[in-house]
Amino acid sequence: EVQLVESGGGLVQAGGSLRLSCAASGFSFDDYAICWFRQAPGREREGIACISAVDRPLYAHFVEGRVAVSRENAKNTAYLTMNSLKSEDTAVYLCAALNTPRLATFMLPGDYLGQGTQVTVSS
Questions:
Q1: Handedness of CA 85, 44, 8, 26 (dihedral sign)
Q2: Residue 92 contacts by C-beta under 8 Å, 6 or more apart in sequence?
């Protein structure tokens, strides 16, 4: 059974930092790009960052400089570190395992999506 389980979310003050984790199982983690999406109430899902299977990062322009994406294949885990958090970063953060790295949030056959972890930034 394929599983992507996000953790590390919570309540943080504006200006603070969080590191989210995405633990994967049930598929060949090394072969997939791991991407992070977020969805805030009333807004469309948006892509934040990806780390390709060959460890190449990709960032959305609106988070570049504040966010770092990484992966640890030996642990089948990916990470999203977010700094200088703002209230507008409040959202559910989801990780996705994609055959090709992209910030577009559509899913294709063979892609996988986690359930998400809530991040709330208080101002």
A1: negative
A2: 38, 39, 40, 116, 117, 118, 119
Task: Report how far residue 105's alpha carbon sits from residue 114's, in angstroms, rounded to the nearest whole number.
Answer: 13
Give the separation between CA 123 and CA 114, rounded to whole angstroms. 28
CA 35 vs CA 7, 20, 55, 65, 97: distances in Å: 15, 12, 12, 17, 6
H/E stretch holding 21: strand 18-25
33-70 tens-digit pLDDT: 999 999 999 999 999 999 999 999 999 999 989 999 99
Kindly report the number of other CB atoms within 10 A of residue 2's CB atom: 11
CA distances in angstroms from 38 to 1, 26, 35, 73, 114, listed in the order given: 24, 23, 10, 23, 11
